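tool=predict chain=A
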Amino acid sequence: MKAIIWTRVSSVEQEYGKSLDAQMLSCRQYAANKGFNVLKEFSISESSTRGNRKKFNEMIRFVLSQEGVVRIITYSVDRFQRRFEESVDLMPFIESGKIEIHFIATGLVIGKNSKPAEYMMWDYNVVGARSYILQLREGTKRGIQQKIRDGEWPTTAPIGYLNYIDGKYRKIKVDEERAPLIKMAFEEYATGLYSIDEIVRRLHKRGLRSRGKRGRLISKNAVHRMLQNPFYYGMMKLYNGAKFQPHIYPRLISKSLFDQCEEVRLGRKKSFVKNKGKEFLFKGMVRCGKCGHLVSPYKKVKKSGKVYNYLRCAQHALNNSCDNEQIKEKIALDRITEGLQAITIPESMAEKIRQELIKYNQEELQTKSVLIKEANRILGVIKQKIDRLVDLRLQDGISDVLFKQKIKELQDEQARLEESTAESKAEEASLDVSIEEVLSLAKDIGKIFKSSQIDGKKEIINCVFANLSLEQKNLYFSYKKPFNLFVEGLSCTKLYRGRDLNP
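tool=predict ok
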């Protein structure tokens, strides 16, 4: 007498447990006692209520491909099915004697000679299994809502974080391998120098791969979603998309860095169609000095046929709400060239500047170190306060309303300090730039800029200048460290004393 064995669990967690083994052992013992010849064993992890049940259908096809009657041995109705659809589909094969189902937990056998009471018992068991799933689903929904209220993310964490199981609890931690690459992608995109395609290429070059078994290179769509995900600066976007809520996990970036990326992304989106196929030097790099919006570059063809590039506030281009006047791109380029000339140093001054930079870096590093140490001390105090609040809440020593209020206050202060610490560390790292490289660049930066292609020019502008703004028909800027020292004047050299580059 032919038979097959069917065992099933609903999740990977159950699969790693003992459920499948226990079902299989019982089914094998039952087949041996009945003298059945087991043709094949199906032991799978598959939901009985979602999807088209590929493995289940595969099992049925195998059964129907055999000659004569085939017994399906399974532990219980809920391990076999939780929907009436399978009953309806199987009835013709049961009534014709092709299939016979043995539920060993209850001793129920469904075949062509089964009595109405047995069919009714089968149906009752399916109803019970279905009811259990609905109750489980409702309980899961309540659990998810509670996790969200507690600042926990209830599903798969975004790339840069890892899901793991600590005892019986699911938790999330920072992915130490991928997190630095994610942060680097945000920092590079925020400069406005790189498109999404370029960010993807850079991530591929650095080896960023998905967390799946195959570990595929991250896709462009995944990078799009990543750069728009508030999770990285400490906020969860809830399922309905209507609001955000702070989470309890470490932040990879600051809110200000995320906002910069958003501005770049939205600025690119607005100008994509208009500027498609055109490349502008100052695209995404300059802000309006009056309203703060990004400046939009565009081309204008004169009657003579000559083509000129202009810079104009994007808000003016959209609805004429900003009266900041446009300027020719050449004027902005001349200002940048003048700014680069101001930091070009003669060979005779190099050694004096080198010594002053070393001294300056040491002083700044000491200051940053003290600030970071103090911030970390306060963060430790905040963590202790949060732990005490949680203990009080568990002991019913504090109301739910007061608990949420205090937790939010502490989390807000924690986020502010973590962002401040991250910025201090970033500034600390920026001071650790090779002095020799800076001096080498400063000697020939004008020539390098002039001979570079547009991407190279953008790199230099982004490296040297900050806060580029358009106002009063001119381009204004400040210098990034340590180039600001060349213009402001070092204490021992008084280099370029009194010179004002922002007219």
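The longest strand covers residues 37-45. Residues 97 and 502 are 93 Å apart (CA to CA).
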